[in-house]
Amino acid sequence: MELILKQDVQNLGFKDDVVTVKNGYGRNFLIPQGFAQLATPSAKKVLAENLKQRAFKEAKIVDDAKKLAEALKALEIKITAKAGGEKLFGSITNIDIASALETAGQPIDRKFITSGVVKRTGKYAATVRLHREVVIELPYEIVAEK
């Protein structure tokens, strides 16, 4: 079944992508939740026209995302957490990284940060998706609270 995504769906695609999924997934989940619509020939023509009109705006958005990526790479992020030796009491997730970026003056929504769960002190890297074409590796360090 071919569908046009109305918004980003994790592990499937981005907004306005034409994707092929199994019938049950499309009919029972994506369409009723409002995540997608059927990719009929008329819907594809409308999508092509919208994408053509949006191409110029998209170039500016990509440039802004690249500038933000350079600013993020220049940051040194240190997250302090309670620890006993090297092992943390609790864990560090993408929520903690997002709050550290916000205090550094670069607010990024936590759903665009992929880091996994970290339970030890040390240096790590998180993946930040600023745009579908702009994905960066963001290094950060976890230090023990004194």
Write the layout of secondary structure elements.
Blueprint: E1 2-5, E2 18-20, H1 23-30, E3 36-38, H2 41-74, E4 77-81, E5 83-84, E6 87-92, H3 94-103, E7 113-114, E8 118-120, E9 122-131, E10 134-144
Summarize the structure.
This protein has helices spanning 23-30, 41-74, 94-103; strands at residues 2-5, 18-20, 36-38, 77-81, 83-84, 87-92, 113-114, 118-120, 122-131, 134-144. The protein is an alpha+beta fold and 146 residues long.
Give your account of this protein's structure:
It contains three helices and ten strands. It is an alpha+beta fold. The strands form three sheets. A four-stranded mixed sheet has the order 4-10-9-7. It has a three-stranded antiparallel sheet with strand order 2-1-3, covered by helices on one side. The termini are far apart.
H/I helix tally: 3
pLDDT < 50 stretches: none
Major beta sheet summary:
4 strands, mixed
Mean pLDDT: 91
Based on secondary structure, the structural category is alpha+beta
> What is the strand arrangement across the widest sheet?
4-10-9-7
Which tags fit this structure?
single chain, 146 residues, alpha+beta, four-stranded mixed β-sheet, three-stranded antiparallel β-sheet, 3 helices, 10 strands, 36% helix, elongated
